[in-house]
Amino acid sequence: MNDMRLEAGLCDLNGRHDLYGFIHKGLRKAQADMLVRLGNEDMITASGRQTLADLRRLLALAALHIKHEETFIHPHMEDAGLLERQHDHHRDTFQRLENLIRGIEGAPSVLVPAHARRLYLAFGHYVAQDLLHMYEEETVAQPHLWASMTDAQIGAIEGAIMRSISPQNMAAFMDLIVPALSPAERATLPVAEI
Ligand SMILES: [Fe+2]
Predict the structure, then answer these.
(1) What stretches of the chain adopt beta strand conformation (E)?
(2) Cα(106)–Cα(89) distance, rounded to whole angstroms?
(3) Residue 42 C-alpha to ligand 1 middle, in angstroms?
(4) How far is the centre of ligand 1, averaged over its atoms, from the C-alpha of 50 (Å)?
(5) InterPro entries, per this entry (predicted)?
(6) Binning pLDDT at 50, 70 and 90, where does residue 64 land?
(7) How far apart, in whole angstroms, are the C-alpha atoms of residue 186 and residue 178?
(8) I need a labelling partner for 113 at 20 to 30 A (CA). Which of 22, 42, 46, 59 fits?
(9) CB 55 within 8 Å of CB 192
(10) What is the C-alpha to C-alpha distance for residues 147 and 24, in angstroms, rounded to an integer?
(11) What's the 193 CA to ligand 1 centre distance in angstroms?
């Protein structure tokens, strides 16, 4: 843990460009909401099946997000090894979670609760790992980027990521991000007047 960095203010924004902030807020909220749904839904019902479909979509977006970081951000870091090992672990976890989803879908009704419990515990473990991973990125990796790059350079990375995203995936990312932002942060989004 790097709590001393927080206490010392070493990862405060101080007006610098927050490359990770919005998408990580979106992922934290979406993953926390999903964990609650996996805990209180009956997976035999239509609502439960919708939750599994929504989980698949969320995992696909999470996988796309770590690909963006590796493609566009990590080449600008001196040592992205730790973050990439954590990403490899995430990818293995995504496959295990998909297998657990299929386990629910293929199980006879009487066994669905047992399979659903496995998925709930496994997803909770993934969320715990990802919270720590995003913390590492925002408190250690981002200050290193600030030290070596200007905000214009960091903004150019963000622009390259945005341009690489399809309209459909951009809409899905915004569905995660917008409800997770503060009012002041939402006001910075480049949307047309409502
Ligand atoms: Fe990451």
Answers:
(1) none
(2) 26
(3) 32
(4) 27
(5) Hr_FBXL5
(6) very high
(7) 7
(8) 59
(9) no
(10) 21
(11) 33
Domain 20-181, CATH among 3.90.740.10, 3.40.50.300, 1.20.120.520, 3.30.420.40: 1.20.120.520
What is the 31 CA–ligand 1 centroid distance (Å)?
Answer: 15
Contact at 8 Å (CB) between 38 and 119?
A: yes
Total number of residues shown for the chain? 194
Residues 6+ apart with CB under 8 A from 106: none
Mean pLDDT of 140-160: 95
* Ligand 1 centroid – CA 46 distance (Å): 33
| Residue 74 vs residues 28, 141, 142: alpha-carbon distances, Å | 21, 10, 11
From the CA of 33, how far away is ligand 1's center (Å)?
20
How far does residue 117's CA lie from ligand 1's centre (Å)? Answer: 27
